[in-house]
Specification:
It is a single chain. The chain is built from ten helices and eleven strands. With 255 residues, the chain is of the alpha+beta class. Strands 2, 5, 6, 7, 8 and 11 form a six-stranded antiparallel β-sheet that branches. It is elongated and about 80 Å long. Residues 1-13 and 185-195 have low confidence and may be disordered.
Length: 255
């Protein structure tokens, strides 16, 4: 079961009171970023889904990664200079790196090379809205983690996770029409008065893609909030499940 957010201690009485007053009236505008800022700890996890995953220990990677993982005594014997320094960003296998230094491959630490991307759906009850975001543990091809235990490596690989790509939203609440700026100029002085540059989302049953400027603002807000640690736990759970299956498959293949 995916972890959910703890009980909300944020004062959302103003939004909830406005919700009660407007349920039978025409939908009123509600700024999306204001909603997120005022109720960040009240968003719950609906689903965390892994979309793509890669686990390896054999992919070539920058020479500097292999070198920095060496014991200090070995680095003192083979200082990073000359041709070694010139090749520091060259992608090279662990075996070729060891051969180039003239040491045994067993003397070169082996990294887990991890890449995970997925989707996370968050929902809010009053107003009744949901967000679908896309995430990754790294913006690189993979992140190398030097740990013997894969589960520990997976957890550590999320140290610099990011929201990526588009943000989607659905509004199922007839009392409110969500609004937000679609341009940087509008973001500085927008109001829900129908002016150009203001995005609006009425009640619907399907997710809609947020405009890029608004999506970026949402991602920044959600990444900065302390409560995001609970969402990262859900991402890690999805990645750990994949890693468990990976290990099980490797063990079966070795039999």
């Amino acid at each position: 079961m995916l972890p959910t957010l703890p009980a909300d201690h944020t004062d959302t009485s103003n939004i909830q009171m406005r919700h009660t007053e407007q349920v039978s009236a025409e939908p009123k505008p509600l700024d999306l970023l204001t909603l997120i800022d005022e109720t960040a700890s009240n968003w719950q996890i609906h689903r965390s889904q892994l979309v793509e995953a890669s686990i390896s220990q054999t992919r070539p990677m920058q020479l500097i990664y292999h070198y920095e993982a060496l014991p200090d005594a070995t680095k003192a014997q083979y200082p990073l200079q000359g041709q070694l320094l010139k090749r520091f960003d060259e992608a090279i296998s662990r075996e070729d790196f060891a051969a180039g230094l003239g040491i045994a491959v067993q003397d070169v630490p082996q990294a887990w090379q991890l890449k995970f991307t997925g989707k996370l759906v968050l929902y809010h009850t009053q107003p009744d809205v949901a967000l679908r975001l896309h995430w990754t543990n790294t913006l690189k091809d993979f992140v190398p983690i030097y740990q013997a235990d894969l589960a520990t490596a997976v957890a550590q690989s999320f140290a610099h996770w990011q929201w990526i790509g588009m943000v989607e939203m659905v509004n199922r609440d007839r009392a409110w029409q969500l609004v937000g700026a679609t341009t940087h100029d509008a973001a500085e002085h927008h109001a829900a008065d129908g002016r150009q540059g203001v995005w609006q989302l009425a009640v619907d049953t399907q997710f809609s893609v947020l405009p890029p400027v608004l999506a970026d603002a949402v991602k920044q807000s959600l990444q900065a909030d302390d409560v995001s640690a609970h969402w990262v736990a859900a991402m890690q759970d999805a990645a750990q499940s994949y890693a468990d299956n990976f290990i099980a498959t490797q063990q079966i293949a070795a039999c």
